[in-house]
Write a structure and sequence with these properties.
The protein is mostly beta strands. It has a single domain (3-198), classed as Lipoxygenase-1, CATH 2.60.60.30. It is 9% helix and 44% strand. Strands 1-12-11-3-9-8-7 form a seven-stranded mixed sheet, with no helix packed on it. Strands 2, 4, 5, 6, 10, 13 and 14 form a seven-stranded antiparallel sheet that branches.
Length: 203
């Protein structure tokens, strides 16, 4: 059983797992649709932006550093960010127990300049279907050691969102020569585009 994090807390991955294991991590998400969704078909997606430092923030410098449900259009496969990120495939229902989608992370393949992997959960076509995170329950992200199939840490999002259509659930970042994970839980109403705009990618 991993460490349960609260919003704003972090964990030092470099000290929690072996150096070799940092090449074999997984960021997994799960969710359920709550009773107020009125049976509308609901699809949540996991995405990860591999980011460089940009002043006091971060910047996406190449669309190939963006791992999401349609990254094959840009990379030719489900692999992005120099091989550091591999997308699991799209789960369109969230039905059943356990993880619904995941991205495998190989930090040993982090290219020079990348210091932050921003993990996003977003709703597919929220405006067209009138959907938001107020209709979602039991949403979480967990970081897994794939070598041992053990959970390193988990962040359960409190059901505090209403009109938001995308949430930055956390980030894996490099600081003082160590990799860490921070639980963030920051919601946006403009969907995945909000993060594309925030990270200033114009390609």
């Amino acid at each position: 059983m991993g460490i349960n994090l609260s919003k704003g807390q972090n964990i030092n991955l470099s000290k929690t797992v072996s150096e070799e294991t940092l090449s074999n991590l997984r960021a997994a998400i799960g969710w359920d649709i709550n009773k107020f969704s009125n049976g509308v078909k609901f699809d949540l997606d996991i995405s990860i932006f591999a980011l460089e430092a940009n002043g006091n923030g971060y910047k996406l410098v190449d669309v190939k550093d963006f791992c999401f449900y349609n990254c094959e259009q840009y990379t030719g496969s489900n692999v992005a960010a120099n091989g550091a990120l591999t997308y699991s495939g799209d789960n369109r229902t969230g039905a059943g127990e356990g993880d619904d989608e995941f991205i495998d992370i190989d930090l040993s393949k982090t290219r020079n300049g990348i210091v932050n992997y921003s993990i996003i959960v977003s709703i597919s076509d929220p405006d067209g279907k009138g959907l938001n995170f107020g209709m979602v329950s039991n949403c979480y992200v967990r970081i897994i050691n794939k070598s041992t199939d053990e959970e390193i840490c988990k962040y359960d999002l409190a059901e505090e969102f209403s009109t938001e259509t995308a949430v930055q659930v956390g980030s894996i970042y490099f600081y003082n020569n160590e990799w860490k994970f921070k639980a963030i839980g920051s919601g946006y109403t403009a969907g995945l585009d909000a993060f594309i705009n925030e990270y200033q990618f114009e390609g």
